[in-house]
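Purpose: get a first structural picture of the assembly so the mutagenesis plan has something to point at.
Setup: two entries, given in the order below. No constraints added.
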Amino acid sequence: MTDLTQEFVAQIREAAAMKQPLNIEGSGSKRWYGNPSIAQRSLATSGHRGIVDYDPAELVLTARCGSTLADIEAALAERGQMLPFEPPRYAPESTLGGAIATALSGPGRPFIGGVRDFVLGMHVIDGKGNVLKFGGQVMKNVAGYDVSRLMTGSMGVLGLISQVSLKVLPFAPARATLRFELSEAAAIQQVNEWSGKPLPLTASAWESGTLYVRLSGARAAVDSAIQSMGGMQLDAATADAFWDSLRDQTHGFFCDAHEMNAGQTLWRLSLPAIAPVVAAGQVPGAHHQLIEWGGAQRWLWSDARADVIRDAAQALGGHAVRFNNQHGAGETFAQPTPALMAIHRRLKHTFDPQGIFNPGRLYQGL
Amino acid sequence: MSAQNQRLIEALGGALPSANVLWQKEDTAPYECDGLAAYRTLPLAVALPENEVQVQAVLKVCNQFGVPVVPRGAGTGLSGGAMPMAEGVVLSTAKLNKILDVDSLSRRAVLQPGVRNLAISEAAAPYNLYYAPDPSSQIACSIGGNVAENSGGVHCLKYGLTVNNVIKVRAVLMDGEVVEFGTEALDAPGLDLLGVMIGSEGMLAVVTEVTVRLIPKPPVARVIMASFDDMTKAGNAVADVIAAGLIPAGLEMMDKPATHAVEEFVHAGYDLNAEAILLCESDGTAEEVEEEIVRMSAVLLQSGATRIQVSESEAERMRFWSGRKNAFPAAGRISPDYYCMDGTIPKKHIATLLNQIKEMEERYALRCMNVFHAGDGNMHPLILFDGSDEDQWHRAEDFGNEILEACVALGGTVTGEHGVGIEKINTMCVQFEEKERDAFFGVKAAFDPAKLLNPDKVIPTLHRCAEYGRMHVHRGQMSHADLPRF
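Result (structure tokens, whole complex):
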């Protein structure tokens, strides 16, 4: 339980005065995500840790940014609760601050919500060294603009997220995982049809002709869904290990040595769930995909040019993320339109007038 | 009318069919206030565009003339967010009222901003889908207004607010440029501008199209009505239900003055001896609801409920809810006027706040009844007064502000779902320091550098906060003197 707020303020004021950019870093477990940082100096957040407030009856947990996800989840589990957005834990030391700044959400995203849906408020230290407090510890709060959401997924380019209040949820009383042999197109159709019915769906994944569906909720709801949906039920340990491997991206698809050795890039396509099958003729590498989120998140390895993949994703109503970009082969994220980019630049100037926070990490020049 | 204003009216007439520009007093009068009728101003003109191109044209004209624009949906807002400016134009989205698409497989609806909230669920009903956020004004309020206010309703705890249920917003910036926030997918590249746009009270851009997610309609819903002989016990019961791992579809509380007022009005069968009643709803499949109702009932009894009734039919469920849903009209029936507050606090402080309000009732010599979204700590104290008595209105205003300041002191917020608008702009001085308010001004300018879209709402200037602080000291009612105000 160490409060380093004043140290951070001093470091930030000094960096701003000297116009020396800072690379905000927690455990460093997501260093490879986003564009490479051009900052020479680091601001280490992992010492700023501790749960500041947690009352299970409020469904709200407040913690400092350097707290590890592991510690937070352990404290929640003790009271039968969880982080509903299931952030990936790339390392045991992965921090809350990193989870919020990247806004990466787990397998339950379309059914339960993403990081943005559970952020209630935060403390942010801006580029002038002001500690700003937005949102709060209550479920409903519309006083002022929702700056907490603006910070969520900002890759740290607007300020240092020093403390976060989250909505948490109880574990479901019952869980089950079903598997079905289905083609890609049939699987996407099927999951979306089920999603329109009152079934306790909380995750889906498809790879190589097999669809996996996770159910969680009241015991009676899970039991009756198993009856009505059919399929093969996985044993609990296998099922938990499978969903964890997707959540933490330890699943074989993400660590494919063959693809990595061939110098291929892992792409994340964020698409409308019912977007048609992405064909290999359209996007090289698309013959082997891992599909999550009922069709809304599609992973593939490809050596195709970025614009080919980005254009295909955009034509389908979504966008593409160059997920492993440690070599800085180009922008990680798709470019917003010029009008939206102008808003990005003005927001950057408002919160970080000297441009010291994670320059380039979200977009080059920002 | 000045020559400059005349030129503006002419230019608007060039941007829109002439019948869609109102500027004579008898035509603009209906727009002088929104649902907060105590604050009124006649606008210079009202523009009623019929499509996005016309919205662009109106904004371009106003931008060129340097004239402020106040966007307006159905005008049901409760915080004066759509109150006109005397030198400004009201842009009404009333004629942009088409449902553009409802897709059952992807569970999305694409709407023009003037579509009524309830009309979305009606259009989705044939597919057994619905749009979850249900503000109590849902038969009249529009989705564009819901986006502006980040509207809630009685089911937020389980199903979220507008921000959790809107995936994309198409809008026009003050300079006439069309932008899209969010995508048809579950996220968008770059900063989450959609998240900032929702709840921005018409100050960042004018909404022209909204894409919402639809969710499956639960086949069954049942509600428990629990009586308590003590407000503190009822407040603790709310916490106990949630601590037991239950997330009710709705969890509402009413105090004794409220149950008495509504019972006379709708005969919902409320327990008039109870100090407080809780309505706790479960929805889902029949088996699921059965299981939850058993667990909820056990917790409520354990927490000291003196009486428990579970709805046995849809008719009975509607009857139990009728009192809660008619609380505002019931207040209107027993008092010439009422003033509805909207603070939110951590649930553990519900009883504390209610006791503070009791003490304030005596001090301000005004009655107050309490109905609220207990599950998310969103309080709606209704202060009863007679608006024909100037002094009563001033006391009601001060009473309201003191309640909101108490909410902030208890770790909460001045508004949970109604927005700041013009009504709560002074109490924003209590909740936020100057540095946060500066950041808000920066966010506003990032979207609207000319500061012409609904200016002077939501974010108080330093000067205004200084005035507010002085006023309070003057009246000798400076509460929470330790809070920074400047």
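Chain B touches chain A through 92 residues (CB under 8 Å).
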